[in-house]
Amino acid sequence: MPERRRWTQHGACRAVLLLLAAPLGLLLLIHPGSMVGADGHYSHPLLMLVMLGICSGFIHGLGFTPASVWARGLIHPLLSGCLLGYGYWLLMQASA
User: Fold this and answer.
1) Among 15, 37, 38, 79, fewest CB within 10 Å belongs to which?
2) pTM value?
């Protein structure tokens, strides 16, 4: 009988996070001006959270599972998914 895994360890969850993190990461790398707000300035605390979501999305999407409890909480797929969603929401607000 195959070993049961948590839903966060399945390949589909990892692929979705990687596919969400890659375009947002490339956009911030190539054209960071796209995340400028309506006032013409960056919101650095919010961008740090979005970058944490991008990094944790890449880390989890590539298959790394940390041994430390606090690191597992920091790279948890739900947290990174929420932060990536917030990053896409910020991008929509900046382009509107």
Assistant:
1) 38
2) 0.87
